[in-house]
Every structure is written in C-alpha cells, then in structure tokens.
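Give me the 3D structure for Fungal N-terminal domain-containing protein.
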Amino acid sequence: MADPLSVVASSFAVVGVADVVLRACLKCHKLLADIEDAPASIEGLKTSLRNNTSLVEALKKHVQDIEATASPEDRAELGPAVEQFGIAVKSLRRETDKLLVRCLKYSKMKKTWANVRHVLAEKDIRKTTEQVEHAKATLSVVSSLVEGCV
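Predicted structure for Fungal N-terminal domain-containing protein (150 residues):
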C-alpha cells in the first residue's frame, strides 16, 4: 500500500499539471475557433479538446474532493488512479503544447483557412486528433478508477 502522504503529494502535482493542461486546451480551442472556413477536421479537433477539458476538470475536482474528505486508507487506494491520471494529463499536455506552437504561428495573420492551412496540415490535424482522442479514452478509464476508490 502506498504511503498516504506520497499520494497526497502526487495528487497535488497532478492537479497542478491538470490546471496547465486546462488552460492550454482552452487556448487551443479558442485559436482554432477563430479560423474562418475551417474544415471538418478542425471542428473534430475542437470537439475533442472540449471533451478533454470537461474530463480533466471533472477528474481534477473529484481527486481534490477525495483528498479533502478521504481517510488515509482511502487516499492510499487512490494512488494508482492518481498515477494514471498524471500519465494521461501529461500525454494531453504534450499534444496541446505541440498544437499551441503551431497555432501561435498564425496568431498574427488573418485567420482564414486559406492563410493557415500551411501551418495546420490535414495530416497533422488528424494525428493530433487521434492523440487527443487517445488521451480522452485514457482519462475515461482513469475516471472509472477514481470512482472505484470512493
């Protein structure tokens, strides 16, 4: 069984990373939403980002609630779920960081698809969407793990 204090420390760290990811997801979503004439793949990526934002917010709140009210034994049981939450959030952070770099390249130009399609290639959008969807699936599994710890 994991040390309850180490579980608390790791959950604080994961919640901190989750906050960073939430801000990045929201910024990416806003930058993508500003593109006029965006293809369906951009809409799909925006939807995936929005879904991930909801999942991360819910999981973050749930972990914080459990940490605030759980007994030391329950906190120790939460350890593996917090670890998986951290892995999923870090994966999502890598994708949002890469997407932000690409999106910020076109932030100064007029945001029509014709102007930004060279920065956001369809292949890259598909790959990013797949990775974001994978993170969403992992977050859903982690949500089930966290629910099982209550």
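Residues 41 and 126 are 7 Å apart (CA to CA). Let me know if you want a second pass.
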